[in-house]
């Protein structure tokens, strides 16, 4: 009997010692909560610690003192928060709408009190701008939360920066690439948006921007294009930016066809070492009201192309729009084409895009559109064209009856290569013969050619602005003055209004004086 009593006493002593240790831990936690303004939660910890520390007078005294102090602070904080908690919801929402998108101020405001948190979380207009920064450690979880909170109106802005801060990887999270096992951070983000979007919700985005410091991989390219083909992803402007080459067949073949899936699309820009910018007329604009038989190429209004490496593939993508109708057909479409694809399953994602591209009965993607006997590439409503590099294959097959502004530039190395230079000159001459009558603005400031046979007033009768600022091969006596004189003798030709000359253009003082007498504005630098 005495041994049993002794064991019970030892057990009680050990239990009391453990309770004192737990009470000390609660006290330490309460002091940490007090530093972050969580006095109410700290009070609950201290109240639990009081019952555990009755066997240790020293710990109990510390807990009681801390409890009284925290209760006073909790009462003061409650009085301070009461005016904010009573603020009407509509006033609070109006204030929060002034917060800069992408900042952490909205999350900080939601932590002021329960009333504010409830009002902010239940206001979908406050969560429409999803901006993923390089410092976000779990960007896919952030994307899912914003999509859920912005329902039922959907997102307005989607800005994804997945660049890695390589010198400070210990500070900023590393962005995984898709080179190893097919998965990447970008795929996780897009898949999270796919999975969190409720049925019936459409993300009418003003802007979808993606930025990366590394070269694009085919895996991520596939997922981006598949994401943009979603019927509930409707961006008005798309920007894909990188510091490296952005090249893949999907960009050149799918982007021109996107207006058939997204009637709101007005701009698509990819920018790396090569730059391409498509400008479309959205269907809600008066200029885009066409019949169902009008090809997709009629939606293209402006085109900027700089230093692309696959010119033939780019021309083929434009050619697909010229023989495709805006109405998407069902031939070749699969019921699985729009299903979300988990990260890493690139073959399934690419197969879905292939099935969607086969949805038009009129598109033959196996045709060689660059051959000499191929039908012309007709862009009926294109008004502005800017191209640099070896662009002659595109001009050789193009017809642009509404073109008003033409900007062309070539690398200086073209002067030393007889074959490409001659091909470019011949393509320009044929192109101006077909489309020159509508051109009003011509910019050849950086067009490095040996001859300029296309600079004839009969080919450019309506030219009003001529820019040759940095072109040392265009001389006043050989090209400019004869062009102005010929236009003056032709009663049907328009007068040249603006002539932009630079220090590289060769002219004499009497020649510049003559040009100023016959041209409204002559700019010299």
From TrEMBL:
Gene3D superfamilies: 1.20.1280.50
Domain F-box span(s) in chain numbering: 87-129
The species this protein was found in: Heterobasidion irregulare (strain TC 32-1)
SMART domains referenced in this protein's UniProt entry, alphabetically: FBOX (SM00256)
Name of the molecule in the record: F-box domain-containing protein
InterPro entries membership: F-box-like_dom_sf (IPR036047), F-box_dom (IPR001810)
